[in-house]
Automatic annotation (TrEMBL):
This is Acyl-CoA desaturase. It comes from Nocardia uniformis. GO terms for biological process: lipid metabolic process. It holds the Pfam family FA_desaturase. GO terms for molecular function: oxidoreductase activity, acting on paired donors, with oxidation of a pair of donors resulting in the reduction of molecular oxygen to two molecules of water. Residues 71-337 form the Fatty acid desaturase domain.
């Protein structure tokens, strides 16, 4: 396999040897970070957990004063921030095994549960295994459109695609429920490709986990505030919606803005370690921002680094990002990054454009990366 990418000076070809050398350099970078893990990483995650718990206690406490609008709004803000931290900087990263080296039972990826309706074991399968192994491979990675959206021109168009932006908005508002249903493969159930026997165990686990979440947020905690039951219920509901919108936006900015590329099973057959690294770099995008922004995004604002090293503590991504970018420049590969407004605008622009039939939407300019496999070039990308 060789990779050819267009530059201002013309085409640049990366040979198989160069790709494997890039892979070795990334392996060395990973090894250096792994060898350096220690007290500062341990203290970082403990600090985040303390902040998350303080925000949750503050938010739920403020709901006891919910009859005063400023306190209700402050409660929603605090609880929303708590749920975002639990979902992204704690839950997502812990379940990737980023802190297994600490041997802390409460941070063990195999037993950790998060404050959302999706059972952690199902998420680890759909996300850790399916998505991170087969990133952006059509027919393998179901995160390409989540089974309901057209986010890539390689996905076939039909009249139902006209609702693409509406489906995306619905998924955004109910994102935790969309994530929960991911492993069910609802589109395959509708097509008759999956039966009840295929999903019975999944549904049982989902009902158990979602039932506990609904009971906690919409019955127990509202009941504890007595006459403010409805106000507290509304606050909990709003905090969940805020968390869903934020999580959807960060994840979609990392996977679907202009320039992020997709692949076919044929193009990635017999993939080497170096080629896997290149696919992760071409199939991801970053978001620039402040330190607080990165923390609140679970450092998934460094999606390129996360896809390269999903089990390294995410607080290390900002420090290795310049080294990853330098490697991209060295080998002539694109490093897709930009402001949140730019990336999210690009995502929604694509969702609207791809809702249209191809003869109206036109074709998106390719980023110029071509994969050469067995001497036969084929374009890869959106």
């Amino acid at each position: 396999m060789a990779i050819l990418t267009e530059t201002k000076d013309g085409p640049l070809v990366l040979s198989a040897d160069q790709i494997e050398e890039l892979g070795r350099e990334l392996d060395e970078l990973r090894a250096r970070v792994t060898a350096d893990l220690g007290d500062r990483d341990r203290e970082y995650i403990y600090k985040i957990i303390r902040a998350q718990r303080a925000l949750e206690v503050t938010g739920r406490g403020l709901f006891y004063l919910g009859f005063l609008p400023p306190f209700w709004l402050a409660g929603v803000a605090a609880l929303s921030a708590s749920k975002i931290l639990d979902n992204m900087e704690i839950g997502h990263n812990v379940m990737h095994g980023q802190y297994d080296w600490m041997r802390e039972p409460g941070l063990n990826s195999r037993v950790f549960e998060w404050d959302t309706v999706c059972p952690s074991d199902q998420w680890r399968h759909s996300h850790n295994y399916m998505h991170h192994t087969f990133t952006n491979i059509h027919g393998k990675d179901r995160d390409i459109g989540y089974g309901i959206l057209r986010v890539d021109e390689a996905q076939a168009w039909n009249p139902l695609r006209l609702g693409n932006p509406l489906y995306a908005a619905a998924l955004m508002l109910a994102f935790e429920w969309g994530v929960m249903g991911h492993d069910l493969e609802v589109e395959n159930i509708v097509r008759g490709k999956r039966s009840w026997s295929d999903i019975k165990t999944l549904v049982t686990g989902q009902a158990r986990k979602a039932g506990r979440q609904v009971l906690k947020d919409y019955v127990v905690f509202p009941a504890l505030t007595g006459p403010l039951f409805v106000s507290t219920l509304a606050g909990n509901f709003t905090a969940n919606i805020v968390r869903n919108i934020w999580t959807f936006s960060i994840i979609f900015c990392g996977h679907f803005p202009t320039g992020v590329q997709t692949f076919t099973e044929e193009e990635t057959a017999e993939e080497t370690r170096g080629e896997w690294y290149v696919r992760q770099m071409l199939g991801s995008a970053n978001i620039t921002g402040s330190e607080l922004f990165h923390i609140m995004s679970g450092n998934l604002s460094h999606q390129i680094e996360h896809h390269l090293f999903p089990d390294l503590p995410a607080n290390r991504y900002p420090e290795i990002a310049p080294q990853v970018r330098a490697l991209c420049e060295k080998y002539g590969l694109p490093y897709n990054t930009g402001r949140f407004s730019k990336q999210i605008g690009s995502v929604w622009g694509k969702l609207f454009k791809l809702a249209l039939p191809p003869f109206l939407a036109g074709k998106t300019p390719q980023p110029g990366v071509i994969v050469m496999r067995r001497g036969k070039p084929s374009e890869v990308g959106v």
